[in-house]
Each structure stands twice: as C-alpha cells, then as structure tokens.
C-alpha cells in the first residue's frame, strides 16, 4: 500500500488563510498557509506539517514570528523566494497494523507533545500578530 497526497487541515489553519490569503500557486487542495500531509507506505507512515507559498512578504513575517517563538525550520524559510517549509515531521513504523491500529497511530501522531506545542505557538502567533493584519 502506498498512498500519497493525503492531507488535512484544522480550523486554526482556516483562520490563518483568511488573514494571509491563498498560496501564490496551487498547493494541494486547500491553498492555505498551513497543511498537514502524510505519506503511507507498506512499512511506514510519514506525517508532516508544512508552511506553503503564500504572499512573500506575509510569509516572511509569519516565518519570523515562528522563529521568535522557537519553531524550528530551515533558514531558507526566511527568504522571499521560499515556497514550502517543513516545521514538523514524524515517521512511524506501521508494519502489521490493521485499520483500527492505523487510526490509533494517527491519533498518537497528532497528539505528539512537540506538535501540540507548535500548534499552541501558532495560535499565539495568530492571536498576537496575524489577526491584526489588514
């Protein structure tokens, strides 16, 4: 089994999209600033949170805010030319898992303390900076 291109979003991502706009180019199916995506292979599940190619000035402002809050990403993410930046990823083994085990694995991945910390910081960034943008 190899399923590529599965993605999902959360309400906070929609709020960012309302303030920061859609991406400069088609990005998955949502075209918003943030997206979770996963790649399921026969032996592993790769789970990622990524920032997409929104307007360059808004993107740099967002990435600078994330850096100030301690969210780690590639230095390239602070450049105007940057398009996609991974801010969280996790890979787990799924060998021998049935469907209910996979659902449990998704819950564990989403509930990861590091990821939840990033989402809390993104909420603070939204509340302190992004929601005030015109």
Produce a short descriptive summary.
With about 130 residues, the protein is α+β, with helices and mostly antiparallel strands. It is built from four helices and four strands, in the order βαββαβαα.
Features:
about 130 residues, alpha+beta, four-stranded antiparallel β-sheet
Please explain how this structure is put together.
It contains four helices and four strands, in the order E-H-E-E-H-E-H-H. It starts with a strand and ends in a 6-residue tail after the last helix. It has 134 residues and is an alpha+beta fold. A hairpin with a 3-residue loop joins strand 2 and strand 3.
- Which structural class fits the helix and strand makeup? alpha+beta
Shape: elongated
Number of helices: 4
Rg, nearest Å: 15 Å
Low-confidence spans: 1-7
- Strand order of the main beta sheet, please? 1-2-3-4
N-end to C-end Cα span: 45 Å
Report the sheet with the most strands, covering strand number, pairing sense and barrel closure.
4 strands, antiparallel
Please give the share of residues in helix: 25-40%
Number of strands: 4
How much strand? 15-25%
Pattern of helices and strands: EHEEHEHH
What's the oligomerization state?
single chain
Average of pLDDT: 87
Write the layout of secondary structure elements.
Elements: E1 3-8, H1 11-20, E2 34-40, E3 44-51, H2 56-68, E4 85-93, H3 99-111, H4 113-128
Antiparallel strand pairs: 1-2, 2-3, 3-4
